[in-house]
Amino acid sequence: MLELRNITYSYNRREALKEINIKIEEGERVVILGGNGCGKTTLLKLMDGLIFPDDGEYFWNEQEVKENSFKQRDFSREFRRKIVMLFQDVEVMLFNPTVWDEIAFGPRQLEIENIETRVENWGERLGISHLFKRHPGELSIGEKKRVALASILILEPQVILLDEPLSNLDPRTTGELIDLLLELGATIISSTQNLSLAPELGQRAVLISENHRKVYDGSFDELFEDEKLLLEANLLHIHKHRHEEKVHRHFHPHDWKYTKIP
Ligand SMILES: Nc1ncnc2c1ncn2[C@@H]1O[C@H](COP(=O)(O)OP(=O)(O)O)[C@@H](O)[C@H]1O
Ligand SMILES: [Mg+2]
What we know:
The chain has one domain: Rossmann fold. It is 31% helix and 28% strand. The radius of gyration is 20 Å and the shape is globular. The strands form 3 sheets. It has a 6-stranded mixed sheet with strand order 6-7-8-3-9-10, with helices on both faces. By secondary structure, the chain is of the alpha/beta class. It has helices spanning 40-47, 73-82, 99-109, 115-125, 141-153, 171-183, 198-201, 220-225, 227-232; strands at residues 2-11, 14-24, 29-33, 55-60, 63-64, 83-86, 159-163, 187-192, 204-208, 214-219, 237-243, 246-252. The termini are far apart. It is built from 9 helices and 12 strands. The chain binds adenosine-5'-diphosphate and magnesium ion. Residues 11, 14, 16, 34, 36-42 line the site of adenosine-5'-diphosphate (ADP).
């Protein structure tokens, strides 16, 4: 359904993605992994049609997605309704005076019917109905994330792009968000640098290296076996620990669950 063919992208002359090939089928849940600055956000923005490749092609349902494609109103409406993105910094997504207006904004723009019922449904599903009259700017980060998510899920998209969706969330909100994502039937492409939560976001791991190339595409089990690759991609680090009198060298992810020690 989505296909990136040999995509290269640079910001002025700074490379962000290099010769990336990815094919994603409907209903897949793909997790883009990689260290800071490897190109995860850039990749998601390309898939969301916010930026366009310098080289290579991007296809959605066999149609090429180019800057010009968005000049066709039908294509643009269809694409913007079917493919949505949750930004890592959700604040950039919130600009309406109330939570209600925020969630209703997309459906109003796209002239979707039954807006009231939809807003009520999604408000309830995300546990934010009690916030409808509040100003989005004054909410907690977890509440903001739920509002931003409601504002895109209300479009009933085919593809949901999530940029580091679990960052800055407390454990309960993280769990609730993961459960909600599991209930949705959509294709979900998320990015993360959190190795222990990554398998909760999908079955297929795509690893981007520090030199902006795809270096792995497959199951998590196989990826977790390859410590060299994880180290190179900056997802694990080694540092020294002092246990009683002995100094050990351990592999460490940036969290606690991944405990395999060489
Ligand atoms: N707006 C921008 N202008 C210039 N360089 C950018 C911009 N956004 C990202 N970059 C650069 O592109 C590379 C990839 O960035 P990004 O996609 O944000 O990585 P990630 O999301 O994996 O941390 C980095 O080297 C980053 O500095
Ligand atoms: Mg990023």
